[in-house]
Design brief:
- α1 packs across α2, α1 (3-16) runs parallel beside α3 (39-52) and α3 (39-52) crosses α4 (59-92).
- By secondary structure, the protein is an all-alpha fold.
- The protein is built from five helices and no strands.
- It is rod-shaped.
- The mean pLDDT is 92.
- This is Replicative helicase inhibitor G39P N-terminal domain-containing protein.
Length: 111
């Protein structure tokens, strides 16, 4: 995120929270903590925050949902891969040969 992005984010925040500190010092502080963070995700998180809170978002709340989102996406990808592998295995699966169960039971009874 660049300084211009932080300023655009501040416009969004101050529209809803007029008491939000939009000083240059606060812009610099937010830029330091958000420079590696995607602007679009920050906007989504601020919009979500506006819907649920009457207090302006802190930096941790602007960033906070990213970890949850990336973890969720990773878990969804892992689940998709697991289910795809199950389908591949199901397509390869065959029934045991006729009489297999009876032969196995007979062997178990002898021992």
């Amino acid at each position: 995120m660049e300084r211009a992005d932080v300023l655009r984010l501040f416009v969004l925040i101050t529209d809803e929270y007029p008491n939000f500190d939009d000083s240059d010092e606060n812009v610099d502080r937010h830029l330091k903590e958000l420079k590696d963070f995607p602007f679009e995700t920050a906007v989504q998180n601020v919009e979500r925050h506006i819907k649920i809170s009457s207090f302006y978002p802190k930096i941790s709340e602007i960033r906070g949902f990213a970890a949850d989102q990336s973890a969720r996406e990773r878990e969804l990808a892992e689940t998709r891969a697991y289910l795809d592998q199950r389908e591949v295995n199901r397509a390869k699966a065959t029934l045991p040969p006729p009489g297999w169960k009876d032969d196995l039971l007979a062997k178990l009874r002898r021992n």
